[in-house]
Design goal:
There is one protein chain. By secondary structure, the chain is mainly β. The chain is about 5% helix and about 40% strand. The protein has one helix and ten strands, in the order ββββββββαββ. A hairpin with a 6-residue loop joins β1 (about 1-5) and β2. This is Fe2OG dioxygenase domain-containing protein.
Length: about 100
């Protein structure tokens, strides 16, 4: 985590290196969670594994797109908007073939 004592800015980077020993199996890289800050901006860099939870409780994979960003409402925005903006429950599954970086 990177933070500056003179600022309220914060950057968190999660690194998931390739895991070739998984050989087609999936491993939870970062379990079900919401993010603590105001928003999270994620980029897949062409790597799959991000899944989001729908209102009905089902999980959907977010297709990797190297040209797009995924903007996620986080916990602090929920508080500031008095629950008008709700955070998105999500998780990361690792498939072992490539590196995944999460920056929030």
């Amino acid at each position: 985590m990177v933070a500056d004592a003179e600022s309220d800015s914060m950057l968190r980077v999660n690194h998931y290196p390739p895991r070739p020993e998984l050989q087609g199996r999936l491993l939870t890289g970062f379990g079900e969670h919401t993010d603590p800050q105001v928003i999270s901006v994620l980029r897949s860099n062409g790597t799959s594994g991000l899944e989001i939870c729908a209102r009905d409780g089902s999980w959907a994979a977010v297709p990797p797109d190297p040209d797009s960003f995924f903007v996620n409402v986080a916990d602090a925005l929920q508080v500031r908007t008095r629950r008008a903006a709700l955070p998105l429950l999500h998780l990361l599954l690792l498939h072992g073939r490539s590196t995944f970086l999460s920056r929030t």
